[in-house]
Design a protein that fits this description.
The chain is mostly helical and about 400 residues long. It is about 70% helix and about 0% strand. The longest helix is centred in the last third of the chain and has 25 residues. The chain is globular and about 60 Å long.
């Protein structure tokens, strides 16, 4: 089967870059007006690529795709029901449109394309995130902002932390996967250098949610990397081992022995912040009372968009409780079930594809990344959700029979 034309891959790459970038633009005041146009233009490019595959009759639809899209469609149907019952279509129309377009662009259309690959998704996201951070570092230099809570052009340092840790997760999987397969060492080193930079930005954002996610992802990837190295040592070259050792020793040296601000941030802000919160019995920064109120008062059809201003003036600080509070119990259950099935499928995908697929770990890690940051923040329409949702298209691809990336 033809693996997609060059033009189709260009359309997919540009579409994903624009779509991923729209999430960052949404949180930057001077570029907020570009968020919707970027999102829609990116989606249109993906749809064009999908039509190209349909015309060539190169589309494959499997049962996983049908299951996942059906679950998400059920969630959207229940959201619409709640909006109708609560009579708040005017205030919720933009969010509803976003859910529908995520389903259309990243669920249906992306899965219909023949030229999509994990490499395209990885590179598209990395490029979009680097564009954002390069702009921040130029316009909002770290040296001119409080080091303990760098927020760049975002209004909230947590937004920097979530984008940075998502870049950390994707780049870490990409770099270690290439080294593990003994391929493209220069590209692997580039990814791992991005990992160091993204990890540093995560630390100076002083976002506990992002820091916890960073630790979780790092432990998972390192464990899988070491296990696979030991189990498949015959596939490894001495260069892979040397490069890995060099990067580990070099990274630890830069972090510990050199006067690196990141070490000071980790010690004096991140860890100190955890200590203060534990001592004051407020590890979740006051989120538990909000969560308890949401669960106790959740109606059959949710409370509508004005609910948060009534109880706290803030949001739910949790993607799943956000759905529960605004819509309906069944919508929250459907949304939770969707991501649970996605997580299970990603584990199965890794176990069955890791010998033939270079980036087999990617779906599991981006879904773990999304679920982790969602525990303390509402990320339902964030780039971390876009990235995780796009794995539906990856699951829909025929089983690869080679190590070609």
């Amino acid at each position: 089967m033809n693996q997609g034309s060059y033009m189709e891959k260009v359309l997919l790459s540009l579409g994903l870059i624009l779509l991923f970038s729209s999430s960052s633009a949404r949180y930057i005041s001077e570029f907020k007006y570009l968020s919707e146009p970027l999102f829609l233009l990116g989606g249109v490019l993906i749809i064009i690529a999908a039509f190209n595959s349909l015309i060539k009759n190169e589309t494959v639809i499997n049962t996983t795709f049908k299951l996942m899209t059906s679950l998400y469609a059920s969630f959207m149907g229940l959201v619409i029901l709640s909006i109708v019952v609560n009579q708040n279509l005017e205030s919720e129309v933009l969010t509803l449109e976003k859910y529908i377009f995520i389903y259309l662009f990243l669920g249906v259309s992306l899965a219909l394309t023949n030229g999509l690959s994990k490499r395209i998704i990885i590179n598209s996201f990395v490029i979009s995130a680097l564009i954002t951070f390069i702009y921040f570092l130029i316009v909002y230099p770290i040296s001119e902002t409080p080091l303990e809570s760098y927020r760049g052009g975002f209004g909230n340092p947590n937004s920097v932390g979530v984008l940075a840790v998502t870049l950390f997760s994707v780049s870490l999987v990409a770099g270690t996967s290439l080294i593990k397969k003994g391929r493209r060492y220069l590209l692997a080193i580039l990814y791992l250098l991005i990992v160091i930079g993204a990890g540093y930005l995560t630390l100076i954002s002083n976002s506990r949610t992002s820091f916890i996610t960073l630790v979780i992802v790092f432990v998972i990837v390192l464990t899988m990397f070491i296990y696979d190295m030991l189990k498949m040592r015959n596939l490894l070259s001495w260069r892979s081992v040397l490069i890995t050792i060099f990067l580990m020793v070099g990274g630890m040296s830069l972090f510990i022995f050199i006067d690196n601000p990141a070490y000071g941030v980790l010690e004096s802000t991140v860890l100190d912040k955890f200590t203060r919160k534990i001592e004051s019995d407020s590890l979740t920064a006051g989120r538990v009372p909000i969560w308890t109120t949401i669960i106790d008062n959740a109606g059959l059809f949710g409370k509508g968009s004005g609910y948060f201003s009534e109880i706290s003036g803030l949001g739910a600080h949790n993607s799943f409780l956000h759905i529960l509070s605004l819509y309906v119990w069944l919508a929250a259950i459907a949304y939770t079930l969707f991501w649970l099935v996605m997580l299970i499928k990603s584990i199965y995908y890794y176990l069955t594809e890791k010998l033939t697929n270079t980036y087999a770990l990617l779906p599991f890690i981006v879904i773990i990344n999304y679920l982790s940051v969602s525990m303390m923040e509402n990320m339902t329409v964030h780039v971390s959700a876009f990235l995780a949702f796009s794995m539906i298209a990856i699951f829909n691809k025929p089983k690869e029979q080679s190590m070609k990336v």
